[in-house]
Amino acid sequence: MRPFAIYLFAAALLLTVGCNRPTSGVLSPESESAMELKTFAKKSVNRQEVFIKGKNGGWFRQTTQQKADGTLYLKDGAGKTFVRAEYEDGGYLMPEWFGARGDGETDDYPAFERAITAACETGASFVTQRKKYSLSRRIEFPSCFQEGMVWTGNGAELNNTVYVKSPGTTIRDVSVVKSPAEGFVWYRGQGGHFENLTAKGCQSAGFRLGGEKGSQVAWSTFVNLKAINNQDGLVLDGSFPKCWVNANTFTGIYSRLNSRYGVHLKGKANYNTWMGLHCEGNSRKNKDLPAMLIENSSENTFMGGQQVTHPGNPSPVVVDRGRLNNYFGGRYVADKAAGRIIQQSKSKIEGANLVPRKSKQKPKDK
């Protein structure tokens, strides 16, 4: 075959493949046919065919049920029925179904707001992907997003505050990086479970519980929280009217290199249990502050595997102005110039390893 003929054959083959390739498109809301779905990018999600609209997002899923409630159903040439994802009851919802891009530049806040509202209406769980979502405002999980409902982050990274007003929910595997305010805030949180959350480089506290009139966070479990390079690490603030942060459990907490306190309890932040707290290199911009400050909070217990260090800082590791707080075990390392390592008058220290040490090494950022 001559070279020119080979060139024509290759060009024709590429053109044929290109014509058969699915492309993105925009589905007309008033359309009564799903023929346009054939031009959409197609993939398999949970063993279902999912058609993704163009750059504006919006997913359609195959369904076998139809409701006489005005919902728009579409049929393709093979007789399959499709429905907009936001009308599916139960299961899960994703912000991508409502237009989120997760490219770190597009404002995904409107899509998050619509997806969370739909989750409240349908009882669906909320799922994000391992992407960078840019948010122009904080996102709120309202009271309707409550017991039994789950946000599975899958390593999602956000750049604005996650504000929780819903009791009994579960949130896991989410990071907030460089928020203009807090990383995570709990206004309500009774009976919730929060796991594998990271707040890094936030302008205020990495994690704040309470801190507002009427805020109540109790009987919740917090596991594997990381607060790094924020203004404060973890703040439990029960100092406002009708506000308390009581009887929560904290396990595997990592608070490091925050500008002020690694852990700060104040007001009615009582009866909380801490296990495996790792607190290092905090108060790095405020040498007169301790790593941990407890103000008027009572009967908190710090036990098992504590590692609280304060190298190169003349302040005590812990300043406890509460009462009946308990320090069982753990290792507390302070600069020799600090004098008392744990400064307290009405609390109990038992089995804790108090180490005065002059350290020339500065903790490295991670």
Can you give me a brief rundown of this structure?
The protein is mostly beta strands and 366 residues long.
General description of the model:
41% of the residues are buried. The protein folds into two domains: 21-88, no CATH class; 93-356, 3 Solenoid (Pectate Lyase C-like), CATH 2.160.20.10. Helices cover 9% and strands 39% of the residues. It is mainly beta. The strands form four sheets. It has an 18-stranded parallel beta sheet that branches.
List keywords for this structure.
9-stranded parallel beta sheet; 366 residues; mainly beta; Pectate Lyase C-like; 9% helix; elongated; 2 domains; 18-stranded parallel beta sheet
Structural topology:
Layout: H1 3-20, E1 41-45, E2 48-52, E3 59-62, E4 73-75, E5 81-84, E6 92-93, E7 103-107, H2 109-122, E8 125-127, E9 132-134, E10 139-141, E11 150-158, E12 162-164, E13 170-177, E14 184-186, E15 193-200, E16 205-210, E17 216-218, E18 221-228, E19 232-238, E20 244-246, E21 249-251, E22 254-256, E23 263-267, E24 273-275, E25 278-280, E26 292-295, E27 301-303, E28 307-310, E29 318-320, E30 326-328, E31 331-334, E32 342-343, E33 348-350, E34 353-356
Parallel strand pairs: 6-8, 7-9, 8-11, 9-11, 10-12, 11-13, 12-14, 13-15, 14-16, 15-18, 16-19, 17-20, 18-21, 18-22, 19-23, 21-24, 22-25, 23-26, 24-27, 25-28, 26-29, 27-30, 28-31, 29-32, 30-33, 31-34
Antiparallel strand pairs: 1-2, 2-3, 3-5, 4-5
Organism: Neolewinella agarilytica
InterPro entries: Pectin_lyas_fold (IPR012334), Pectin_lyase_fold/virulence (IPR011050)
Protein name: Pectate lyase superfamily protein
